[in-house]
Amino acid sequence: MLNPAAAWRHFLSRSNDDRVKVFGIAILVALVSALLVSTTSVALKPLQEAHLAAERAARMARMLDTLPGMRAIMEEVGVDALETRLVDLETGTFATGTDPSEFDSQTAAADPEQSVAIPKDLDVARLGRRAKLAPVYLLEREGDLLLVVLPVSGAGYQSTLRAMLALNADLTTVAALTITEQGETPGLGARVETPEWQALWPGKEIADENGEIVISVVRGQASGPYEVDGISGATLTSNGVSNMLRYWLGDHGFGPFLERLRSEGL
């Protein structure tokens, strides 16, 4: 019968130049390292998720602070944060039965039961799949909508861009755009996260008089209400922002929800 202890001693007694020992030690080191990395990743995941949630909340707060008079309105309404609701993207109606605070869009998008494949002709944001539900953040006063914030995402040049798009009560005018996550080239595409570039968005219009989504980041300087200055040397990142917004504001994204709000209100 094989004695593990004896086999281990025999293995260790081999010459350090022995190929069996060299490959054996390499495999053992790799296995132990993989085990340690996996264990650490699992152990730290709750902390990482909590950190990301706190960072998103902080970015949301900073975005609200950039909107003139928004904090005063929130104090008048008696709230210190926007109301979070879940929306069924297909119907544009508010979803029930799921706690918004426990919903994770990225996890849902990776679950075939909680997501849908995006048709190739509509997938301008290059996401592949999206969750069936999506959170929205609302500020209302006596039943009237004052602000709606939509989480949007899409492929940039070398990362997935994630952002919060705030729309005024007319649901057509941009109140703010805040990039919450990006991994673009430092000094180039990463400039989408700078306050200076994000300050170009307030007041821009997302759709033309026919209701077509036309908001875009253009090369060079913007020349109209539907355009935002492009970032020099970062054309693919700029295109990624344009495509991200066109998808999420379109019929396969938040389009049905925004249309319902326009026609029915809250």
Describe the structure in brief:
The chain is an alpha+beta fold. The protein contains 7 helices and 10 strands.
How many β-strand runs?
A: 10
Largest β sheet strand count, sense and barrel closure? 6 strands, antiparallel
Give the radius of gyration. Answer: 24 Å
Number of domains: 2
Low-confidence stretches: none
Estimate the strand proportion.
15-25%
Cα distance spanning the termini: 75 Å
Structural class: alpha+beta
Shape: elongated
Order of helices and strands: HHHEEHEEEEEEHEEHH
- Count of discrete alpha- or pi-helical segments spanning 4 or more residues: 7
Average predicted local confidence, pLDDT: 88
Strand order of the largest sheet: 2-1-5-6-7-8
> How much helical structure, as a percent, in the residues?
25-40%
Would you mind describing this structure in some detail?
With 266 residues, the chain is of the alpha+beta class. It folds into two domains: 4-44; 67-264, no CATH class. It has helices at residues 4-13, 19-66, 70-77, 105-109, 195-198, 235-248, 255-264; strands spanning 83-88, 93-94, 115-117, 129-131, 133-141, 144-155, 160-168, 174-181, 216-218, 227-229. Strand 7 and strand 8 form a beta hairpin. The N and C termini lie far apart (75 Å).
